[in-house]
Design a protein that fits this description.
CATH topology: Multidrug-efflux Transporter Regulator, Chain: A, Domain 2
Number of domains: 1
Strand order of the largest sheet: 1-2
Strand content: 5-15%
Shape: elongated
Distance between the termini: 63 Å
CATH architecture: Orthogonal Bundle
Helix content: 55-70%
Structural class: mainly alpha
Radius of gyration: 18 Å
Length: 114
């Protein structure tokens, strides 16, 4: 398996709905046993499991795996540090959504006064 130094050099993600663990392994340049370990460590990573406990990853799962890979392999984060970084990013996204909702409500109120 190739060891690529940059997520930009990873192969493009095909337009498919589901990916097997082998396909994700090749797309992210990470071995399957590492993907299974990351599922235990990162609660955000939850592939679908179907017949025979086979894993099926979706596009957002592949993007998350690439993000985790970048944090661990390229930025030098530990597992704990990567977890914390992902949690902080999630909370920032939640705050942005809340602020956008408040802004929209305030604009509606302002429109009532006009």
């Amino acid at each position: 398996m190739l060891e690529l130094s940059n997520n930009n050099e990873l192969p493009p993600i095909p337009a498919k709905r589901y990916f097997t663990i082998g396909e994700v392994s090749e797309l992210c340049c990470v071995k399957p046993h590492v993907l299974r370990y990351w599922e235990q460590e990162f609660p955000q990573l939850k592939p679908l499991k179907r017949r025979g406990n086979r894993r099926y990853y979706q596009h957002h799962d592949v993007l998350l795996i690439r993000q985790i890979r970048g944090l661990l392999y390229e930025n030098g984060f530990t597992i704990g540090g990567a977890k914390q970084q992902l949690t902080e990013e999630d909370s920032v996204d939640d705050k942005k959504q809340q602020l956008l909702a408040v802004r929209a409500e305030l604009e509606d109120i302002l429109a009532l006064f006009d």
